[in-house]
Amino acid sequence: MNTNGIPPVIAVLGLGPMGAAIARASAAAGHQVVAWNRTRRTAPELGLPGDVAVADTPVEAVAAAGIVIVCVRDHAASGALLAEIAPAAGDRVVLNVSSGTPEDTVASARDAAGRGIRYVTGAVMVPTPLVGTADCAVLYAGASEDRGALAPVMAALGGTSDVLGDDHAVPAALDLAMLDLYFVGIYTHLHATALAGTFGIDPGRFLPYARSAVATVGESLADLTDAVVRRRYDSGQARLDMCLAFLDRIVQTSRDAGIDPAAAALVRDASARAMARWPGGTDWDVVAEDLLGAPRT
Ligand SMILES: NC(=O)c1ccc[n+]([C@@H]2O[C@H](COP(=O)([O-])OP(=O)(O)OC[C@H]3O[C@@H](n4cnc5c(N)ncnc54)[C@H](OP(=O)(O)O)[C@@H]3O)[C@@H](O)[C@H]2O)c1
């Protein structure tokens, strides 16, 4: 709310699936929304309620708003947009939720600061249908007074707002780390489904076993994290030599079935490298050492 109790007008620049979802959630939360998209379309064509105003230019949208949200393809696109709106931004906080690498998001924040823009980096961690629901999750980083000004946006987007301090790299780093886990995980599921399929096991029959494996992964993460933090691999739960034998069988069976074994082979090779350095009775988790860099002293 403004000091006069009126919800601030929110400008949304970029009305792809995510920008449109943000605009819809903002309107549903009672904000007046003024939207802009590079390719001009009407509010109904963009899937927006009819009372969302569509501006002709980004500057016009910014001028009409108290808070600005930028949601375009990448940081090349958002950088050009920030340069265009900077003279009109004034005291408004600009939240950029366009995806990028941590390097991109830090460079964009530096550029925005150079242009005198109050700027917050955001990362939307959920697909569009969850925006504006209790299951939404958005990460934020920026100066505390600028993050504070985004309280109405956080309320409108719903769910969890993770406020992560002033390092603009952090939302993108967490976003990429989660997507790393997600994509490699679901690719592995596809691989495993195909492998089972070569033995006449249809995907639906494999599914409960896949769910069980994923649950086991989830349950093991806390211990794995503890091992990695302590850099100790001595629980005796899953020996390196035993796991390497399993991985060899997965790779061999995939090859025999004519299915690319690359993902499993990568893990097998990491395990074989670990076997060359540590005793076979070390926990398999020791493969982390290749990824972690020099141990802290
Ligand atoms: N969709 C999701 O589930 C999801 C989830 C999390 C994060 N995100 C992130 O949210 C951002 C937006 O994603 P999206 O799903 O809406 O679709 P998108 O395809 O990534 O982006 C489309 C939007 O970017 C605009 N755009 C592209 N290049 C532009 C440029 N040079 N100048 C101005 N506008 C430009 C497009 O305008 P035109 O219509 O004119 O092409 C359109 O509004 C992305 O960074 C994406 O990674 C999306």
From TrEMBL:
Ranges where the NADPH-dependent reductive aminase-like C-terminal domain occurs: 167-291
Keywords (A to Z) from UniProt: Oxidoreductase
Superkingdom per UniProt: Bacteria
The family this protein is said to belong to: Belongs to the HIBADH-related family.
Protein name, per record: NAD(P)-dependent oxidoreductase
Domain 6-phosphogluconate dehydrogenase NADP-binding: 10-162
Alphabetized Pfam families for the sequence: NAD_binding_2, RedAm-like_C
Organism field: Microbacterium wangchenii
